Amino acid sequence: AGKENEDVVVPTSGGRYDVHLKKRQRVAVYWEEEVSEVRRCTWFYKGDKDNKYIPYSEAFSEELEEAYMVAVTLDEWKKKLESPSREVIILHNPKLMVHYQPVAASDDWGSTPTEQGRPRTVKRGVENIAAEIPNGEPLQIDHLVFVVHGIGPACDIRFRSIVQCVNDFRAVSLGMLQAHFRKAQEQQQIGRVEFLPVNWHSALHSTGVDVDLERITLPSINRLRHFINDTILDVFFYNSSTYCQTIVDTVASEMNRLYELFLQRNPLFSGGVSIAGHSLGSLILFDLLTNQKADPEEDEHSEEGSRTASSSRGTEEVKDILQKLELSEYCDVFEKEKMDRQALFLCTEENLKEMGIPLGPRMKILHYISSKAETQVCFLHGFSSRLPWVWRMLPRVSANYPQLNYKPTIFFAFGSPIGMFLTVRGVKRIDPNYSLPTCKGFFNIFHPFDPVAYRIEPMIVPDLEFEPMLLPHHKGRKRMHLELKEGLTRMSVDLKNNLLGSLRVAWQSFTRAPLPAVEAGSADAEAEAEAEAGVEQQQQPDTKPEEPPPAVKEEAAPINVGMLNGGNRIDYVLQEKPIESFNEYLFALQGHLCYWESEDTVLLVLKEIYQTQGITLDQPLPGSH
Q1: Rounded to an integer, what distance in angstroms lies between the CA atom of residue 527 and that of residue 521?
Q2: pLDDT tens readout for residues 286-324
Q3: What is the pTM assigned to this prediction?
Q4: What is the CATH number of domain 141-292+401-477+560-613?
Q5: Fewer Cβ close by (within 10 Å): the C or N end of the chain?
Q6: 3-state secondary structure of 414
Q7: What does the alpha-carbon distance between residue 398 and residue 239 come to, in Å, rounded to a whole number?
Q8: Helices (H), 116-194
């Protein structure tokens, strides 16, 4: 009796839901969601406007089954069965069963429901139903990815939640695995990647701030004001020290909670963990990651190495400064005091006096320091254990950043404003040697029309102009309209260059001074020589032929973009769809919300994750590194 009363729990949907068989309920495991009803499906119906078969309740299914078995046993058909809602089901024969809905309910005049209207089709069992019953997801999980949303409760153009959007992202990833990792799947080298949503918006807005905002919000244009309060104000909340602490605490604690729960439910899991953030969510993750502490041993070695490298480099910079100020004779003094550039900019007049620097040189050095301080280029330096001195001096939101219980393998940013926020905070350059303390991979992925997205690489290499990496199309080629556009651009540039060269030769021959008849022979020779020179000039003219736009240029030599992504490229741009290229402004919002269903984005995420395990695509995509 005890076993009969026991509730059997069956994990479904890749372990993200538990079905309680006795209660007939499906409960979400990792996030809050309304409990949904579960039915044992035996009998189904489908109307004209329905696109799928819908199961009857279990109680009514039992009545239908009993009537059906009687009809089969006695071979007596055309039986009528009335449902609890006074709907009529007629069993004509095993292959034809229909369900009539009442046109109207009984009223005061005593009229009864009629059997008019188009009947529903009734089916028994799933054999004859053309329904796609999913086979389920691979049991083996190779990698775990936490996904943090941006502003507001809705994450896409259809106003869906982060849970629904991540469901789409996961579904696309399963399709991409079948299409591009088929060999590895057949050899059972891989299973799948699990994506779990991290929600911080509800925690922030449950603090009572909405009530305070409602009190001060004007009554006009109510829907617009409510939308702004619920979405755009999240950016201002994050820049408030009070609410920033709430947000980072929620994100970190939620990711730690999900990680521990995932390990409890998947004790054999041995894969890595990565994190992904969309819009403001990517900035929250970036701030969290820059404030993580490495292991004490690694920290000690890396800090010592960083200090040594920084110190030797800084000493050389001080020598250059002193030479510039014509104070080279004091290099030994600064070297003896182990003064690097950072220490030099912290010097006061008293410090220089203690070092024995005379008044004149002191004034020169102090003037140099003050002039540079006004236009100081702020660097994000590469100490792994703590934030660098310059970073701490910047105007930032003060918060106590929690530590994560794991080291992320890769950080993916979708439509990210990280570059803009760093610039606003006063960071003009990121040190090429800087990397996130506990995460060695960083990819900044954006749509070309995304109004919220900003690049990262120009902050590391500010003196060099270069384009972001173009994400290859998941079907293995560049989109047709982009190839056509580049081809036409190349053709127009070539035509322009050839035309300019021909005009130059014609102009030179036209403006040549006339020579005497006696020197006709030599003139001809000179003309030939000048014509040849003109052709050479056409090949290498004084004024450079117009260069094709950056998108058309062939990929140049590898660009060193620092260690933020382990020496690999950071910025990746999606290819816009043909319809999007007609009007950039019209598709700007869609560009910011397109990542959840973007096969190209998902494929890059999978490719980079599995590359860390030594597993590659079946066929390398053109343009991918």
Answers
A1: 10
A2: 999 999 988 755 444 444 554 444 455 555 678 888 888
A3: 0.71
A4: 3.40.50
A5: N
A6: strand
A7: 9
A8: 162-180, 182-186
